[in-house]
Amino acid sequence: MKKIGIVGGLGWRSTVEYYSEICRRADEWHAARHLTGTPSTPEIVIESLDVARSLALLGRDGDEESWRRYDEYHRGAFRRLELAGADVAVMASNGPHHRYDEIVCGLEMQVISILDAAAGECARIGARRVLILGRALTMRSGRLRAGFAKHGIALSGPKDEAAREKTIELIAELQRGREKGSAVRLGRIVRASWGFQEEPVVCLACTELQLALPVFRAQPSFKYGGVMYVNTAAAHIDAVLKAVGIPCEKRNPAPKKSGPGVKGKV
Predict the structure, then answer these.
(1) Per-residue pLDDT tens digits for 242-251
(2) Are 119 and 206 members of one domain?
(3) What is the per-residue pLDDT across 42-98, written as a single tens digit (0 to 9) for each?
């Protein structure tokens, strides 16, 4: 199998999830084929960055020079993964994908985009209007909106500033391992943010947000509390496994569409 590189630490709990899920799925793939002997898992190398430093280096849109150190910090991690022999790599985080093109510029190995994986999953389930929840950079990112638009999907963040702040606060709590009541808080944020008549379709565009609904952590899309969620981390992991030759054994069927939103269980 191809060697996988992970740029992690942004934050570390989601990095653990990427590592453990890739290994778990490799074990399942081995067991499903009734193979004997010790299961074969992909070789994985991780570059764990400092999330505080990453956030401190954030630039200003419209000022390319202000992003130079941010881009170099993340690109440097990929360079080290290349030197370690990685064939395919990912950033286990949504935010840096705002600068995906600049970060991966000049790299020789394949870097799988979480944006492409998440937008592809939204398109697969028939979503046309999607609420994005994540860190401030992610929720305002015009690049993410443009990426989803290529799939015919209109992406929007919460219009209510209070809902944006509550989303950021929830992420901070989850990053500290404080998960109690997080599913209820997430549901309240969605209801306060969704202004359309049809059922909500929500993109969990922060790898920590999946920790609010851990029972669904391996599912790229699922329905909970009357809300359709797209789990960017799970969709990203699916794309990594496909790239290294471990296809998804079972995919949830796409729900029947009703209008621009999505109804039905996934």
Answers:
(1) 999 887 655 5
(2) yes
(3) 899 999 999 999 999 999 999 999 999 999 999 999 999 999 999 999 999 998 999
Based on the domain organization, do 99 and 146 belong to the same domain? Answer: no
Q: What is the DSSP string of the chain?
A: -PPEEEEE-TTHHHHHHHHHHHHHHHHHHHHHTT--SSPP---EEEEE--HHHHHHT--BTTBGGGGHHHHHHHHHHHHHHHHTT-SEEEES-SGGGGGHHHHHTT--SEEE-HHHHHHHHHHHTT-SEEEEESSHHHHH-HHHHHHHHTTT-EEE--SSHHHHHHHHHHHHHHHTT--TTHHHHHHHHHHHH--SSSPPEEEE-STTGGGGSGGGTT-SEEEETTEEEEEHHHHHHHHHHHHTT---S--PPPPPEETTEE-S--
* Pair (105, 134) in one structural domain: no
Number of Cβ within a 10 Å radius of residue 148: 24
Q: Is residue 130 within 8 Å of residue 148, measured between CB atoms?
A: yes
Q: How far apart are CA 256 and CA 200, in angstroms?
A: 15
The CA-based angle 57-59-64, given to 5 degrees, is: 125
The residues pairing with 156 across neighbouring beta strands, listed in sequence order, are 131
Judge if 158 and 36 occupy the same domain: no
Amino acid 33: pLDDT: 77
Q: 208 vs 222, which has greater pLDDT?
A: 222
Percentage with pLDDT > 90 across the chain: 65
Alpha-carbon distance 107 to 118, whole Å? Answer: 22
